[in-house]
What does this fold into?
Amino acid sequence: MSQDVKLAAYLDGIGLVGPGLDNWLAARPILAGAVPYESRPLAVAAPQSLPPAERRRTGVAIKVALAVGQEACANGQLDARQLAAVFSSSGADNDNCDAICKVLASDDRSISPTRFHNSVHNAPAGYWGIASGAMTPATVLCAHDGSFGAGLLEAMTQVAIDRCGTLLIAYDMPYPEPLHAKRPLPAAFGIALALMPERSAHSLARIELSLVDAESAALAEPELEALRRAIPAARGLPLLQAIACGAGGRVVLDYLAPLSLAVEIELCR
Amino acid sequence: MTPLQLSHFTTASCLGHGLAATLAALRAQQSGLTPCAFETVTDLHTYIGEVAGLDPTALPVRLADYECRNNRLAWLGLQQDGFSDAVGAAVARYGRRRVGVLLGTSTSGILETEQAFRHRDPASGALPDDFHYRTTHNTYSVADFVRTAFKLEGPAVVVSTACSSSAKVFASAARMIAAGVIDAAIVGGVDSLCLTTLYGFNSLELLSPGPCRPYDVDRNGLSIGEAAAFILLERPADSLDADAVLLLGAGESSDAHHMSSPHPEGLGARMAMAAALKAAGLQPADIDYINLHGTATPSNDAAEGRAVAAVFGNTVPCSSTKGATGHTLGAAGGVEAVISALALQHGFLPGGVNTRCVDPDIPVQYLTANREAAPRRVLSNSFGFGGTNCSLILGRAA
It folds into this structure.
């Protein structure tokens, strides 16, 4: 099949938010094994770049997505208005979904307009545009547990074909009960990667993606591995760990069975 | 971009099941909209575009976990117009891993969840045991369903950007084919009626009490519909019939303006149309018909009309077919690509139905009657909540 097709890009910026992983810079020594991982509830604020009315309407999913996107742009010294965006999530704003389903099952089905417009899977992309001013294309994907892989494949394809910088924002958040029992996502989590067609002074690595039949990489730290397995957006952690370790080489990430994504990493610094 | 062929396609909407029924309804300028009596929704005074015959449709036993209205609608679509056979032939030609599945939906099978919440355990609050989240409610469900139904092993994804979803899948699939990741793609969209969208649009006061009237001076909101549209997209055959339909360009943009209102000047819409023209290497004068997004909300049609006028002036005939189909949300881009393909193949421009008096403040050439013509290239607009915009350009091979 397409083992011979390789998609290449330069990774210029990384954003990360998860339980015990406050941001990419703080998480780097943890992923490298130099600082022990300690799980704790995640706290993330809505960005100040959103107008106050919009800021009030943002839930956890939107806050996580925007926080990692902004961190990746800041670390890569990139202007979000110049980047296409690929959002990928297995579920989007799951608190909002729960609230709507409860109202619709009640005697009064009047849901709020804000609830409704936040229910679309692309709500974070909409808020991202309002916060950043980016009028560039933004696509929004879902592939259930393969959502990180699907987002990375789409973003790498955009870089390869459109030759434009593309920001991948993969994020997830838990459902409250009763949906939590059916879809147990333990915590909110987000990873953003700023992927560029050309090498710059800020490039961290050149990465090359291909579709393979191979087992995905596991993380040695048991709690981080548990996050990786339980949260679709966290399936990208082995790539971040390789960068954090300054190791380069090859990692295999989950996608859609029987396919996985192999990422060859060549460090730029 | 390198043109791709829409080698096979089909659609099911309130206009009917399959291409022949859809074409006949368009030719007759029929609307499929009826007063809303969907499920338990008896308190909304609006019209809907409901697909007939969905309730008794049963999925094959091996796909039983995918049982929900959205996947039943998908299954109905796959059985029409020889589409499944065409996919089978493509799989034989390219291989299971070289045929991608890229579909749009906004609400997937969430109706199952809405109903499951009514049947929560009174003591524990738990959802019923027979509720399957992954294969019904999850946004990816319909692409997973189609991938599983055809025993495919290649890339698959759902694009869920509200009402531009099943237009944007064409752009993603074209990139994947250009990059050599796949050789062919099943694209399109499936969106089905559910309480979230009916009560949601009602909360925004965007539902018309009657059949929607796009671009009418007295337009007063949209009519929600449901539909499936499937298109097999691949590199053009070596020798093409003159009426083969090609994807010539796709353009995407974001409004960066508001979550549920379009940019008042239609700036994002303008950028998407311009990007599609650029991708196709065409000028505005090369477009013979525009299938408008045309939801019939006051703000959408005003903003889109301004954008169309800014790019094309008032010389290109255009219409919205949502008066006929209703707004099928995440399936709209796919449905309207199929309608555009029918217009190209059968030589007519579909007039918009229900529109009695075109808004004189929107300076475009809006068609209210069918026109016999020989369009060679058409542009189709799809815009959505969150300020997402996509324009597609389709053309005849000759």
Q: What stands out?
A: The mean pLDDT of chain B is 97.
